[in-house]
Specification:
about 350 residues; 16 helices; globular; mainly alpha; two-stranded antiparallel sheet
Length: about 350
């Protein structure tokens, strides 16, 4: 055990697990102070996550855009950038996918990939702007991406009303040839909204891992993120890599939007506030330690928590807002990884 506690890879795996456990324990304490039964509450939460086929289907559906949002955040972070604009990039990708899905009559084998590709392009272009401003004028990407979230929110709403409005604050529905909906998967999960987007999300996770870890361009992107000055003196084009990194990050976020437009909803709503998925991607990336497999697992946890919150409220009378508190606590414990490392180091010494 002491050898494991000195293994850096094992520690990097253990910290997110401990953060999740500590977050849930803190949630149980809060339930006790609120005169709620934590056993009943967590039993209802677990049942709402994986207790029935429909619950499993909805959990997987919810984790699909979270995987892509988490990948978007993690990709930028691994290359030394903070992409806080995933929400905006997701929205423009969502709109682009719905537009392609509605406006064109194509065979499904062409229509679906085209809609996803255009969504990735839209998200990538939205990410290119802060990347260019960072590379050319040294404008901090956090400020620009936050501002561009609001631009995306209101521009997409206006474009829907101007060109795609079907009434009732929604766009026209996409054609069946562009849909990721799956009657087969839905029937397996008691008519849940599970769709083929989960396959796209898992492929994207593999692409992120392969690109960053197994290609020379990925090595170059990570090098620029670690030390721009050393990369410059090594002959790398730092500015170009910054723009490329933000564009790829935005493309992943755009695909997350496509999963909502082509899979879950089949259209786009005129939004007056953010979906929250892009911001949840930050939490998913943190809990997943910015690794592809970690992000998939973190997205499964967060997706399950969010879809099961109403079940906890209905069965155990525990406010569904408690789930948001638990998620915040998990993030807090991940951010407190130094303290967890200190405790593990002390435990390792005492075990000698």
């Amino acid at each position: 055990m002491r050898k494991l506690l000195k293994n850096e890879k094992f520690i990097n795996f253990l910290i997110p697990v401990l953060a999740a456990v500590l977050g849930l324990l803190a949630g149980a304490i809060i339930m006790l102070f609120g005169n709620y039964n934590p056993i009943t509450g967590f039993a209802a939460l677990l049942d709402g996550m994986i207790g029935r086929p429909k619950a499993v289907g909805e959990t997987i559906r919810a984790m699909t855009p979270l995987i892509l949002a988490g990948i978007s955040v993690a990709f930028a972070f691994k290359t030394g950038l903070f992409n806080i604009g995933v929400e905006g990039q997701l929205l423009v990708g969502w709109l682009a996918a719905v537009w392609v899905g509605y406006a064109f009559d194509l065979p499904m084998i062409i229509h679906v990939p085209l809609a996803i590709a255009v969504a990735a392009l839209a998200g990538g272009l939205w990410g290119l702007v802060p990347g260019y401003l960072k590379a050319r004028f040294k404008v901090h990407e956090v400020i620009v991406t936050i501002m561009m979230n609001y631009v995306a929110l209101y521009v997409t709403a206006d474009l829907i009303k101007e060109f795609l409005y079907a009434g009732n604050e929604k766009s026209y529905k996409i054609k069946e040839t562009a849909s990721l909906a799956s009657p087969f998967l839905s029937s397996l999960t008691e008519n849940s909204r599970l769709h083929y987007g989960i396959i796209v999300a898992l492929i994207a996770a593999f692409i992120m891992w392969f690109l960053l870890e197994k290609t020379s361009k990925g090595y170059e992107l990570r090098s620029v993120g670690i030390n721009q000055h050393a990369s410059y003196y090594a002959g790398m084009n730092v500015s170009r890599n910054i723009v490329l990194s933000m564009s790829i990050s935005g493309a992943f976020a755009g695909v997350a939007g496509a999963m909502e437009g082509l899979g879950t909803f089949q259209n786009m709503t005129v939004l007056s506030s953010f979906t929250g998925t892009g911001f949840d991607g930050i939490a998913v990336a943190l809990l997943g330690a910015n690794s592809a497999i970690g992000i998939v697992l973190a997205a499964a946890l967060f997706g399950g928590l969010k879809t099961a919150a109403p079940q906890m409220n209905f069965v155990a009378n525990v406010p569904s807002e408690l789930v948001e508190i638990i998620i915040a606590l998990i993030i807090f414990f991940v951010a407190s990884s130094y303290l967890i490392r200190l405790l593990l180091a002390r435990f390792s010494k005492e075990g000698k």
